[in-house]
């Protein structure tokens, strides 16, 4: 049985769904004002793994991941660039989708945009106001009254006493309490016309937190089976979602809450605000232009990044370093080399098979991908030791459950990569030139000109290309 660590209960519990066999999962997605970085990649891949395993386990999954396409940062960036809001957000949505394709992240079943659900947000605000949980301030903003919601802090573990330090800060104009948060922002005269909607509260736009309360309810209904997101969303975003949704409609917003761990750089969280982030596109390809949304990823580097993310448990703290990426590249290469050396048989996974059982046990234990990856290496060792096409086939099939090992092995290993010692030279020779040198070496060996054959091997080695002479007089090459 699948057990999930629930942030709300702070323990692992069996997955429970409102409707048997159906999982309704909502994940907070991107605010689209810039390119995605590796911290975003961790969230995208983590919940891609969750939905993949739920489907592999026989559940019917309704997966919704939203897009925030109206926000203060979006407005500032659009004004800086002198473009309409929609032009900016469409560009970065396309860029995000290019990153997802590179990482093998499957599209959610629905991808609502905040600007499409403003009416639903206003409906919730009206209900909250009718219940005395929301008020409009003198500045025109509508705020949620935190102290009137008794359960506030239950997700993050923060009490009102913990938050009371904020009371020493001057209360923002229009707020009755510094803990209150904005549901509806009154339009400012200097803001672009395409950033405002008409409402009973005057022209304005929704606050950030209210959008997910509306979109999750509109598309999935309440309660959700799983609500997820990045580590920085636990407070205040998800805490405020709970207050809004449960304050308006009672009951429970979500049965289980899931949060992936942070991506760190030198013990600091990777983020745009700290300036220590690495973009996804720069990690999986070279020479991408900032004025182009789409790109073609390097298959070897892109899968390396996915493998780097998947090999750690989704809740763990993960550290970005060039050495860690190189280690991931080496490890993934070993699995692909197995598939090349021992061509896999076509395998339908038999979950009663001992190694498939071990894989399933790991994944059923709160999506323990680290344990699942260990099973893949056990299968690779068996395939190499026994020249077993069945073991190689099961390796590839189970890898596919994690979105790995689906590229033809020869194509993968012959793709250049910057994440190995020879990576700087690996792109120096194209495949046609390498094939020509390999053929010339074969002719030299046939003519017993071993000095020339050795010289060609060394020439290729210096170009980051490794040769392997295999049975049948054939020579394989790979970039290293």
Low-confidence stretches: 166-170
Helical content (DSSP H or I, runs of 4+):
40-55%
Molecular shape: elongated
Range of strand content: 5-15%
The CA-CA distance between the termini, in Å, is: 41 Å
**Secondary structure category:** alpha/beta
Largest sheet features = 4 strands, parallel
Mean pLDDT across all residues, rounded? 93
Helical run tally: 17
Radius of gyration: 26 Å
List the helices and strands and how they pair.
Layout: E1 3-6, E2 11-14, E3 22-27, H1 38-56, E4 60-65, H2 72-81, H3 85-103, H4 118-130, E5 134-136, E6 142-144, H5 160-163, E7 181-186, E8 204-206, H6 208-220, E9 224-229, H7 234-249, E10 254-259, E11 263-265, E12 268-269, H8 280-284, H9 299-310, E13 318-319, H10 322-341, H11 354-364, H12 369-386, H13 389-401, H14 409-413, H15 423-426, H16 431-446, H17 450-462, E14 465-470, E15 474-479
Helix pairs in contact: 2-3, 4-6, 4-7, 6-7, 9-10, 10-12, 11-12, 12-13, 16-17
Task: Summarize, please.
This protein has 480 residues and is of the alpha/beta class. The protein has 17 helices and 15 strands.
Describe the structure.
- 44% of the residues lie in helices and 14% in strands.
- The longest helix has 20 residues, at 322-341.
- With 480 residues, it is an alpha/beta fold.
- It is elongated.
- It contains 17 helices and 15 strands.
- The model is unreliable at 166-170 (pLDDT under 50).
- α6 (208-220) packs across α7, α11 runs antiparallel to α12 and α16 runs antiparallel to α17 (450-462).
